[in-house]
Structure prediction request, 65 residues.
Amino acid sequence: MKFVLPTKIDRSKRKSISIVINKDNILIKAPLRASETAIKQVLLNKQAWIENLLPKSSIKLEHKN
Prediction:
């Protein structure tokens, strides 16, 4: 099972953060220029959605080049 939730973080540049959820973890994909604060804000905004979907999931933040 996999869900992808795109969220706008910088409307002027149209960059987005994607939250990808599968049965084992939650993967957050973000542009390299996305600030940590913006990523945290997306997680806070979607916290209830994430908890309801996978209450026992592990959350990993991976920075890929």
